[in-house]
């Protein structure tokens, strides 16, 4: 329980880190459309985005606790004094995890070479990086070295954040989103289609993106009446 007790004081720091990741996700998402979102969003809206992502990051945190407990059990069962002598048990563990890590790395490279979809490529690279880091960390644990658990989890969350922001944007650019919007202003109505896409809104602005011209349109919400969504 000593390791769990050490985690509790880190919760506030973890919340700040997740808030930071949520902000980075928004920046990556809008940057894909050449929009500097920090110029159009209030500070409190970054906090709101953190709340929207809270469930997803809570799931990651839950997985983190499980992995942390697994580490604790594994550490208590391993005899680290034997590692310098490379007993057969650790030799096999090193060999297997290193082979798996190399296979994952090769798969990522091959997928990147043959991929024709940026959103799928980003997902493949991020998921592959997660699997590679996980197996490589197991490999390191069978040696006298180790990848610190907090650093491992922070890296995984950052990878997830990059994937989250990038894939959402490229699904729109690659015309893979299934929703159509009717955006009604006081003097004009916008209808999204296969060329004109709705990409989001803040408290004061609304963003559209034209796939043909590859240009974003930024509208003020002062006269926005309603937004209707249909599949």
From TrEMBL:
<keyword id="KW-0472">Membrane</keyword>
<keyword id="KW-0812">Transmembrane</keyword>
<feature type="transmembrane region" description="Helical">
    <location>
        <begin position="7"/>
        <end position="30"/>
    </location>
</feature>
<protein>
    <submittedName>
        <fullName>Uncharacterized protein</fullName>
    </submittedName>
</protein>
<keyword id="KW-1133">Transmembrane helix</keyword>
<feature type="transmembrane region" description="Helical">
    <location>
        <begin position="96"/>
        <end position="115"/>
    </location>
</feature>
<feature type="transmembrane region" description="Helical">
    <location>
        <begin position="147"/>
        <end position="166"/>
    </location>
</feature>
<feature type="transmembrane region" description="Helical">
    <location>
        <begin position="54"/>
        <end position="73"/>
    </location>
</feature>
């Amino acid at each position: 329980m000593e390791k769990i007790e050490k985690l509790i004081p880190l919760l506030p720091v973890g919340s700040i880190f997740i808030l930071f990741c949520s902000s980075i996700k928004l920046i990556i998402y809008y940057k894909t459309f050449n929009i500097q979102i920090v110029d159009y969003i209030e500070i409190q809206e970054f906090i709101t985005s953190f709340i929207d992502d809270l469930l997803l990051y809570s799931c990651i945190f839950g997985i983190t606790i499980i992995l942390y407990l697994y580490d604790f059990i594994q550490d208590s069962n391993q005899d680290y004094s034997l590692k310098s002598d490379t007993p057969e048990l650790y030799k096999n563990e090193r060999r297997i995890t290193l082979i798996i890590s190399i296979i994952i790395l090769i798969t990522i490279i091959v997928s990147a070479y043959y991929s024709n979809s940026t959103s799928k490529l980003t997902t493949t690279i991020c998921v592959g990086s997660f699997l590679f880091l996980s197996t490589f960390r197991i490999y390191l644990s069978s040696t006298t070295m180790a990848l610190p658990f907090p650093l491992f989890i922070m890296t995984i969350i950052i990878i997830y954040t990059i994937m989250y922001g990038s894939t959402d944007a490229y699904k729109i650019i690659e015309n893979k989103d299934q929703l159509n919007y009717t955006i009604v202003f006081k003097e004009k109505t916008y209808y999204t289609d296969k060329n004109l896409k709705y990409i989001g809104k803040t408290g004061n602005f609304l963003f559209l993106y034209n796939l043909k011209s590859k240009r974003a349109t930024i509208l003020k919400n002062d006269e926005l009446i309603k937004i209707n969504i249909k599949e």
